[in-house]
Amino acid sequence: MTTRIVCFFFAVSLSLLISVCDAREISLRILYFNDFHGFAEPYKPLGSEEKVGGITYFAAKLNKLRREKPSVFLAAGDMIQGDNWANLFQGRSVIELLNVMRLDAMVLGNHEFDFGQAVLRRRLREARFPVLGANVQGLKGIKPYVIKKVQGVRVAIVGIATPDTAVSTHPRNVAGLKFLSPEDTVKKYLPSLKRRADLVILLTHLGYPVDRALAEKAPGADVIVGGHTHTKLVKPTVIGRTVIVQAWEHAKALGVLDLELKDGKVVKAEGRLEEIKPVAGQEDPKTLHIVKKYQSRVDAILNVKIGVALVDLDADQVRVRETRLGNLVADIIRQRAGAQAAIINGGGIRTSINQGDIIRKQVYAALPFDNYIVAIRLTGRQIRDTLEHGVSGLEELAGRFPQVSGLTFTYDPTAPPGSRVREVTVGGQPLEPEREYTVATNDFLAAGGDGFTAFGEAIRADRTFEVAGGMLKSARLVFSDAGTWIRDVVIDYISARKQVGAELEGRIKAVK
Hints:
Number of helices: 15
Largest sheet: 6 strands, mixed
Structural class: alpha/beta
Radius of gyration: 25 Å
Strand order of the largest sheet: 4-3-2-1-13-14
CATH architecture of the largest domain: 4-Layer Sandwich
CATH superfamily of the largest domain: Metallo-dependent phosphatases
Shape: globular
Number of domains: 2
Number of strands: 28
Distance between the termini: 89 Å
Strand content: 25-35%
């Protein structure tokens, strides 16, 4: 009898203790950033005299905010590729940095694949944090999710990568991989994780519009920490019970989301962006050591003057309109290939070049991808199809927006995708649908990158098309320079002329 009474009181006491623990309010801070692209040093955006960003200042702010309350630090993809500081070391410098910053988890971005799968697997082995991709099949070294315990709170973090990776990197970089539906993947994992964790975070590289849709179509996650669209989301968005956040780009802002949990539910969410600017004496010493170590190697290779820009060679709007830098690069590609026209993807141009001295590393930053020039015979119909595809992603600022040379075109942005292009000229003459033209581009687009099919359609027509050793081969190729990256062609051009400029010429016009 006595034993039963003791057991009864023990059970009641334990039940009360559990109820008290479940009922207590718990504070948790989520710190996050996205689309870093290796921009380790502060820089001046085009048109600004003030420097922004700087990962050493970012890290100092991160450490301060971490000390204030229990925290989780997350990265929403596109970390290892972009700026020279990352590219010259194929992302190894970034992984070393994130290890020192004690990153808790990272999701794969589409640009994580740009150096190829072998390099990516090396980066995964070097990382002292989990790299997530629940909807990515066929890549060893990644996990679908992790569950971390923070101050007794079980936090599940699920990684979702953009299915657009299959077309936004070179096809050879994703050979053998599958990118599954984000919605289906979330629905697969969410029920189980809701039972096993107190808080479920979707760490995504999908883009803000897709995050919103995901919260509506696959509800149940507490938080979506997103990336991909470089959205400066100053305050969180709430869809149903899901809080959505994103922190701009290039470590120019550190996202802060403070949550209050009670009875296993988020009862309060407050978020903000801490913008990062360089302030003397406010650098984190551990990250500073890493930044200097790699920057000294970058400078030794790339800190060489090659010419002068007579005007600002802008690329800020390269995904929505004609730009000076887009015109210059397209002109150089067309001239090098001896083609009648050139069509390149605006997303292949990443930064502007300011008026004044041009040093080698600026060109490397503007054109970071390992692509080479090809020229292909296309019919007028195929050229029109290519331009239609290029302007089909205006709403999401897709990288396939074209920059052109040797041709002009008008388009109606209000028309449905696929029927936007109006007048097209090549060499000042109206485009003839059945006539063949030589069109220069890069091997990425020629192989079907960014969803461009017309190039592949043309070069497969003679049934000799293949990709061998990473190089395109086809009888319809009239030019192929697989031994020289486009950025080096541009450097040679600038070096030979000493002074370069470009103007907006009305090559691309929006009409109604």
